Amino acid sequence: MFIFVVGLNHKSAPVEIREQLSFPEHILESSLHRLKSEPGIEGCAILSTCNRTEIYAATTDLEKGQAAVKRSFPTRAPCRKTTLPIAFTLTPFMMRYVIFSGCLLVWISMVLGETQILGQVRRAYQAACDYGTSNGIINTWFQQAITVGKRVRTETGIDQHAVSISYTAVELARQVFDSLEGRTALILGAGKMSELTLTHLIANGVTTVLVANRTRERADELARKCGGKAVSFAELEQHMGVADIVISCTAATHYVIRRNLVETVMAKRPERPLFLIDIAVPRDIEPAVGTVQSVHLFDIDDLNSVVDRNLAERQKAASQAEVIIEEEIHEFIKWLNSLFVVPTIVALRNKGDAIKEKELERVLGKLKSLSEKDKKTLGAMASSIVKQLLHDPVIQIRHYAASPEGHLYSEILQNLFSLDIAGQRPKGCDDNNLR
Q: What is the CATH architecture assignment of 165-293?
């Protein structure tokens, strides 16, 4: 049995291709069932997000399996299947690439260490289980990928350094207030960046959200999404007076918040710090605001500087993660290769015993005068010869089972002794597939 993955991601294909070859939720179940019914597919799972589409499949025939997966990409795309960009097609002996997706590393994610990926892997696996398209190989693979992802996060802390602008803003706020539980946030501007930052704030405990925007309809819309309240720009001083956190990202060409306004606000709340994040370009908040007592002001360059430092920390953690991943790859390959090795050893011994019994029967048929004791002695000798003859091949194949090439040795042994083992003589499994 083999496991392989076919797909594309943000590094191998632009969004106009990725969107055409995605599997949205409403077609996921039917797509999985259709793929599972294809010849050569024993189990399958689909991971489809805005950044990548990957089909994982277990098969006994790589050639048939890969063809089936390619046929299963959505047909609604205007691009022809003959030009389908396949980013990778891997056998079990190149698991490193795929395991990294479960381990949250950079080339599978747009953001190094992005914790969202582990959740996506979980959901893809759960869907395969719920819809009955998984099998033992797929189960073990995804379970190990998820386990490795957790281990990497726990042992390296790769996700503890924010590397997105919106989340970095939230992390800085937590440094100022220790906890965001029960805090009030005022959002100026209702664009995408404001919405992302607001989402992170709420996830980290902010309970009251005020949204101010020049266009009231857009403020109402964002407020409804987050369970907040739309407020008027004209009453900015009043709203800043009750806010702990102010996130500003408007399209204004001039300062929206000036020093004199903040001085007036802080005069009424001298003991309460005010945290301001200016994500806008041009800036919304006058730089002099940062000199006001108990005011903490960060602009987009401040955030980028923090992101750069945190990214460097994540890269260090990624290096540590590679060591963990190598260990887990070794264990998975060892397990996977054992699926080849054990049946091979059993078949080899059975064949040896069958030859022994056949030859004993032939010889004993000619030596009818032998006593029962002599027959047993002759049988024991034949058994000993077969056992000793097969001893070294069995020991060696078990040894090589732990290596990435373990299945090759198993297949060579099958060919040398003409062992016919169901599901272990796959077509398309040549050297090009195994490198």
A: 3-Layer(aba) Sandwich (3.40)
